[in-house]
Design goal:
Low-confidence stretches: 221-243
CATH architecture of the largest domain: 2-Layer Sandwich
Bound molecules: iron/sulfur cluster
Strand content: 5-15%
Largest sheet: 3 strands, mixed
Radius of gyration: 23 Å
Mean pLDDT: 89
Order of helices and strands: EHEEEEHEEHHEHEHH
Shape: globular
Number of domains: 2
Distance between the termini: 54 Å
CATH class of the largest domain: Alpha Beta
Strand order of the largest sheet: 8-1-9
């Protein structure tokens, strides 16, 4: 099973926002929202030691995604290939996951009333295509593929060229979007746009700690009850036929 990841080469990105435009068009993103954004850090430091970068921000498909736990309906889930998805048929638009994301990668679509975000263009992947942002990048700064394919570009860039993730001492949830730079631009981005502590509203906390396990227990109990009843029926049926 593939484990997907993305790498953006910040030494190549020119901030043209072609990726944002392509993504918006591909996924019919409403005005004022975005699945991927290009955010300038601005220059920091003093001449001649100035640093600046364009932060290409999107869902990081985190190894430990804080957005999954608070979802009351199970609409947000992580697939076996690592991609964190939203099932719009299950989403109830409560927005708990929007608050929980440290990268502010989710938005509530005002038209569909459902949460939306980058899913690494899963629909395109199923057709054997690369994500829209990768194929559209004018500077060829974006790479996408299987992190576990040792001969593939992502493995080489992450492990061979030490691409970095945007993390902080307080928030480390295993993002699978990496950044290449010459002057530790990932650290600069983490300074200017630090991942925020996942927010868990009281209602979401109440749900995930109490109601969800209880609901699962009840489903389990119901299943167990049905199984016991089924075997009981089998036994009594056999007994009756013996009689
Ligand atoms: Fe969830 Fe946000 Fe991580 Fe994406 S970046 S997996 S939306 S917590």
């Amino acid at each position: 099973m593939a484990r997907y990841a993305m790498v953006t080469d910040l030494t190549r990105c020119v901030g043209c926002q072609a990726c944002t435009a392509a993504c918006n068009a591909e996924w019919n993103v409403p005005a004022g929202q975005a699945r991927t954004r290009v955010l300038p850090t601005g220059a920091t430091g003093t001449f001649p030691n100035l640093r600046a970068a364009f932060y290409v921000a999107q869902c990081n498909h985190c190894d430990e995604p804080p957005c999954v736990r608070p979802c009351p309906s199970g609409a947000t889930f992580q697939a076996d290939n690592g991609i964190v998805k939203v099932d719009p048929t299950l989403c109830i638009g409560c927005g708990f996951c929007v608050d929980a994301c440290p990268y502010e990668a989710r938005y509530l679509n005002p038209e569909t009333k459902r949460v939306d975000k980058c899913d690494f263009c899963s629909g395109r992947l199923e057709k054997g295509q690369q994500p829209a942002c990768v194929t559209t990048c004018t500077a060829h700064a974006k790479y996408f593929g299987d992190l576990e394919d040792t001969a593939g570009p992502i493995f080489q860039l992450v492990y061979g060229k030490s691409a970095k993730r945007i993390e902080s001492a307080d928030v480390a949830v295993g993002p699978n979007v990496y950044y290449l730079g010459r002057r530790d631009e990932a650290a600069l981005i983490a300074e200017v746009f630090p991942p925020r502590q996942p927010r868990m509203p009281a209602a979401a906390e109440f749900w995930s700690r109490l109601v969800k396990p209880l609901a699962l227990t009840m489903v389990g109990a119901t299943f167990l009850g049905q199984a016991i009843a089924f075997f009981h029926q089998l036994q009594t049926g056999e007994k009756h036929s013996d009689d």
